[in-house]
Amino acid sequence: MAAMAPGGASSSEIYKGHAKRLLLPTWLVIGVFLLVPVALMATYSVLTKEFRGGVIWEFSLAAYDQFFLDRGLFGDEPPRIEWTYLTIFWRSIWQAGLATLLCLLIGFPTAWFIATRDARMRTVWLLIVTVPYWVNLLIRTVSMKFLIRDEGPLNAVLLWSGLIDQPLGLINTNLAVQLGLFYSYLPFMVLPIYAAVERYDFALSEAAADLYAGRWTTLRLVILPVVRPGLIAGCILVFVPSLGAFLAPDLLGGAKSFMIGSLIEEQFKGAAGNWPFGAAAAMILMSIVMVVLLVYARAQTREATA
Amino acid sequence: MTGTVINIDRVVKRFGTFTALHEVSLDIAENEFFTLLGPSGCGKTTLLRCIAGFEPVSGGQIRLHGEDIAPLPPFKRPVNTVFQHYALFPHMTVLENVMFGLQRLGWSVVDAEGRAKQALELVHLSQFLKRRPGQLSGGQQQRVALARALAPEPKVLLLDEPLSALDLKLRQAVRMELKQIQRETGIAFVFVTHDQEEALTMSDRIAVMSDGHVQQIGAPREIYEAPVNRFVADFIGETNLIEVPVLGIADGMAEVSLPGGRALRCPTPLNRAVGQGVLSLRPERIDLCPASEADLTVIATDQVYLGTDIQLKAQLAGGQEMTVRLQNAQATRLPERGAEVGLKLEAGAARLLSA
To answer: Do B215 and B116 share a domain, yes or no?
Structure first.
């Protein structure tokens, strides 16, 4: 091992014994913005609901029971599995998954294109990709609604050009939600992939071609594995917020595209809400996300030690 | 000499308005260690990349065993490359790296593994099969790159300054090893370098390039002892270039008038009389002598101690600098600074080139 640099040795001497104090800001941020909110939510999920919103401080598993089990209209039937919320959950997962896939399919070529321009044009292209995101997400989602509704410009152009003879009826469909999610989170896919591709050594592609690999083989066996960390980071950054999204499904989707984010949102909005139930749904959502991230972290560690 | 494996025929390469290669023509023989030598920007790497297929040529043909391969993409050319910075696949093990080319050629995993292990044995890396390139030293990575390029038994192996990233000691050791591997495998090597010592020690033949032109092709000895022009004489080894009036040229020999008045007969590639020429004098073929026998008389200005040699800096009467290399054994009779010194030109010291 290389000898420790003198500066490093002396600074570690100086700060010895102060490690706890120096970490204080970190713990403060993690505590206030992560641990306390999660603890609050976990607590609320096991309290009893107050009918006008809010909670009664009395332990109850009613929220989780309501989520998973169907005991009939009056709560006196033998419990069966409650499919309503599981269906919403499942729909959220595949909507988010599909949005992630769509972002990946469009985001990878986009990122590749940007990363292979010369340095000056790269900055311009990155700006072009990110500028729309300076506008509030709500405004963008509403704009999307106006664009794709039956009387909107998209249908107007298609009708005028004669490609279709009646409006597509996109609004209030899963496809509309898809489009909304895709548009909302595309940069979160493009930017990490761009960072990975920018570091990619193009001599590797030449080496692959030199060793008799055609373009697709090179993509599959060399490029994709080498930029994989960027692809995975992009997928996580799109999948996680898509899973809990409520603006796109609320504004663009119909009753059949209701997602978990909207379900949670409704529980806390207005007098009809059910705080413990919303908190329980949020806890369940968070657990799923945690499992996804843990599986990823595991895979990464295995990779690193292999 | 056996048959020609690569025939480069008037190859032109342009990048926009810049012409990197001007109708370059040369032949590379089977089993040959052929070096493209020149300063940076001379077009040697461009020519190598044209042979590999990474750069499409703007004109001319590249024939491999008589067949024009210039229109083929790199993955259809039976040549392999050792890259300057190795370009090993970071996500694959050493063995997988070496197997890569074989598997693309349709070898079964078992066969590819067998051949890959052979190739790694050839470069003495059998103990690192399961390592990733990131876990190897620069020298070891270089060997993996060599094994990877050799495994598919290419018709020609292209090497793009493969030793430039290694430190000096390692570089010298690898030179001899490369040469030996070339002899063992019998594959033609095309080796690109800007290091003339590297070129002289390893090559069967050298092509000296500058500004997109081939200046001279020949064996190391030929290039060094019979340079065809001023650029080659100056680039390969050290030399003193002195402008002299030419008295006559006949049958490859020239008669010139040395500064100080003496006449000298020396070889020349020129074949018709010119008024003025450049005389190339190799510093190690010049010796000290008494003033009465001297071809040239100079004033000693400085000495540089180089270990095996001592470099004597001197000035001609006209003020032109000269360098003389003396073996360290002769150091006892070195002249004082400012002393007048007689110089004797030994056989083969001088060569007349065009001005």
So the answer is: yes
